[in-house]
Amino acid sequence: MARYTGPKRRLSRREGMPLFTKDEKALERKGAVLPGQHGMKRKRKISEYGLQLREKQKAKRMFGILERQFSNYFKSASKVKGETGTALLKFLEMRLDNIVYKLGFSKSRAGARQLVSHGHITVDGKKVAIPSYNMKTEQVVALSSKLSDNIHVKKVLEDSTTLPEWLERKATVGKVLRIPAREEMEQSINEQLIVEFYSR
């Protein structure tokens, strides 16, 4: 259950896009300046390998996964029939913490991960405290009764955006209707570059 605990906004600046909640303003203020003492000077042309690496790092950081686990996801995806990149994204999208986030139970994936790891989430009526738990179709996700009346949680649910069509939610209970299609998954990731990175 290892996770990145360092400064987050510098990661968003490094990837040139808001990877976490509230990072949009930080990027507007800092512009395209990379993190670090020499961020203003580092504007050299990026190689093909560099582009592949940045895409892999972006996806890894967006879902809050460290290198070993992300690499294992790729190995599993490469064994699935069909496009490896799409299979990789499916593994990421079907993580329990991502589904908790997509259901609107939390404003961020990091917050959703915390809800899961602290035992506030049940799957089919049983408590699951593993953020990487692989969800399947027809499984039901719910907030624990302890949190259902929490003022902060109620506000988050009220402010949550429209749900993806592959998910369903009623109050504090959600359901996975089906596996998402590629166009319903994270659009800011170019999975082909990640495949090329691991296929070197």
From TrEMBL:
Record's keyword annotation contains Ribosomal protein: yes
SMART domains associated with the record: Ribosomal_S4 (SM01390), S4 (SM00363)
Small ribosomal subunit protein uS4 N-terminal domain segment(s): 3-93
Cited InterPro entries: Ribosomal_uS4, Ribosomal_uS4_bac-type, Ribosomal_uS4_CS, Ribosomal_uS4_N, S4_RNA-bd, S4_RNA-bd_sf
Subunit structure: Part of the 30S ribosomal subunit. Contacts protein S5. The interaction surface between S4 and S5 is involved in control of translational fidelity.
Function text: One of the primary rRNA binding proteins, it binds directly to 16S rRNA where it nucleates assembly of the body of the 30S subunit. With S5 and S12 plays an important role in translational accuracy.
Entries under NCBIfam families matching the protein: PRK05327.1 (NF003717), rpsD_bact (TIGR01017)
Protein name listed in UniProt: Small ribosomal subunit protein uS4
Organism in which the protein naturally occurs: Candidatus Daviesbacteria bacterium RIFCSPHIGHO2_12_FULL_37_11
